[in-house]
């Protein structure tokens, strides 16, 4: 397994592919050198990476590190939220058309000859994840920690990934995709798909002669069309949410490979894994991960991937057995997983309160027909009739659309005079949920 400083060294090989196009190591090296020289001439250190293409992203990530910059991975590529972050950024590098209030360096794919400078030993990157307070949480990761995480994964699955090509249905703009779609393949010298797979038909097109690994999510595996012809998989990894047992079984049957799940977060990195060959398979901690119960039903995780001695308080409830294996038993915080995306209900509420006419707001996940979506309860400063409310909802959606993930946009709306509370003046969630038990 190669450290990042050696990724661009060695004999010519395929590092990635895009459709029928093979993307080679020598080209990547020259592109990294050219872009790093450009970045060295630009002021500031914090540059956001917003890319559709994973190969472009990988080149830019390396170029930023070699140029002594701090790559920032915001988790999205929406102009409205990038503009909100402008005080924390010096610029944006992207292969997408963006209308932003920040310096924008467009991807050009230029090449240069010469020798790469030494990779800084203190290289870091910054990611953002939705926190329980509603504001995006800034998470700093050192290159040393990212490499340590790759070593853990290589020790577990390196042999299975030998001679594999890596296909992914998840974005590199989040830590899971960054780790499994970029860091691990590059460390193992395995080619990765530059284009993300969104549909079963695209997955079927990606299968070629040879071995493949699929980096996926419960949402993609749930939608998988098992009537399509797919090759056997050497490895399937799923993360980002709860994988239903029937989806794990169907995926196993379709691709002749059991699904392996990852448990972790942006803040903690990987914590545990399990192979889903039975419904209630227990989670097994990675070496170097320790769990400690700190309160009734509260757990603290300590890990070589967490860069402080205090560890990290988990928002999940755990049932831990005598051997240290565990099951997940719900969450404590105000975040929910919808279509495998972690959605901050507090963030939605904060943005609802900024809408014209809204004086109070509550957001929650509403389940109908086995699918979850966001429901919101609003208190308005002025009563509206049905026609006015219908028009106002359209206006509110237009306000929310630029700054929320599509799955975070409210689907169910309720307007009340006051939001129900308990005798302790806390939100009465059972009563709030009752508001969605009728069609609307």
Structural features, described:
The mean pLDDT is 91. This protein has helices spanning 25-40, 54-66, 79-84, 143-157, 175-188, 200-206, 218-223, 245-255, 345-353, 386-400, 429-434, and strands at 14-18, 21-24, 46-50, 70-73, 91-94, 104-106, 124-130, 136-142, 164-168, 192-193, 211-216, 235-238, 259-265, 269-275, 284-285, 289-295, 298-303, 312-313, 316-320, 326-331, 335-338, 341-344, 358-368, 371-380, 412-415. The protein is globular and about 70 Å long. Helix 1 packs across helix 2 and helix 4 packs across helix 5 (175-188). A hairpin with a 2-residue loop joins strand 16 and strand 17 (298-303). The strands form seven sheets. The protein has a six-stranded mixed β-sheet. A six-stranded mixed β-sheet has the order 9-11-12-13-14-15. It has a three-stranded mixed β-sheet with strand order 2-1-10. The protein has eleven helices and 25 strands. It is an alpha/beta fold and 440 residues long. Helix content is 27%, strand content 30%. It starts with 13 loop residues before the first strand and ends in a 6-residue tail after the last helix. It has three domains: 1-141, 3-Layer(aba) Sandwich (Rossmann fold), CATH 3.40.50; 197-332, ANL, N-terminal domain (Rossmann fold); 335-434, ANL, C-terminal domain (GMP Synthetase, Chain A, domain 3).
